[in-house]
Design goal:
By secondary structure, the chain is mostly helical. It has helices spanning 2-18, 22-44, 48-71, 78-100, 112-134, 139-144, 146-168, 175-179.
Length: 185
């Protein structure tokens, strides 16, 4: 799923550079991006209440984003960026809260989920203010600041690459070899 997202991200970046109306491409990709991230969090979370919250909030947000996409198709609407970014940051907090309270995840950074969520947080928090700032600019002015987006995309993709590398490794019990037999009886 993340691999498909990365391909879609690369295609949207190419379309932004070649399109006459990059706002349309950005708004459309933002909806796709949110669907990918929300579905990732839905499948990563274990708590049923948290999953239901993610599902309800995501359906609500997608409805608002689709409405805003068609209502303001001439100019990039920063309300989409604010809504989706804040929701994904909330989903990330839910994920980390669940991981901290889980007895099974002693070393969290060895799970691929951690790196995907870290990439999401870094990218979305880094580009939130960029999208808010550039919402009132023309496409030409926005393109001059687009390097910031690319920098955060690189950081996000590095985190996703680490996640891919960790996902390929078979899971092993990391506690057994390091601590040996801790049975006191």
């Amino acid at each position: 799923m993340i691999f498909i997202y990365i391909i879609a991200s690369l295609l949207s970046n190419l379309l932004v550079q070649t399109s006459k109306n990059s706002s349309f491409v950005i708004s459309g990709f933002e909806i796709i991006e949110f669907v990918f991230f929300a579905s990732f969090f839905y499948f990563c979370l274990k708590n049923e209440r948290a999953k239901l919250s993610v599902l309800i909030a995501s359906i609500f947000a997608i409805g608002i984003n689709v409405f805003l996409f068609y209502a303001f198709e001439k100019n990039f609407d920063f309300w989409n960026a604010i809504l989706t970014t804040l929701l994904i940051i909330i989903y990330s907090i839910l994920f980390f809260y669940e991981q901290v309270n889980s007895v099974n995840s002693l070393i969290i950074y060895q799970n691929f989920d951690f790196w995907v969520v870290t990439g999401c947080i870094l990218y979305l928090s880094g580009t939130l203010f960029l999208f808010m700032y550039t919402s009132s600019m023309t496409d030409r002015e926005r393109n001059s600041l687009w390097f910031v987006n690319f920098a955060f995309e690189i950081v996000k993709n590095i985190c996703f690459s680490i996640a891919f590398l960790l996902a390929r490794k078979p899971k092993q019990n990391i506690l057994a070899p390091e601590f040996g037999n801790t049975n006191m009886t």
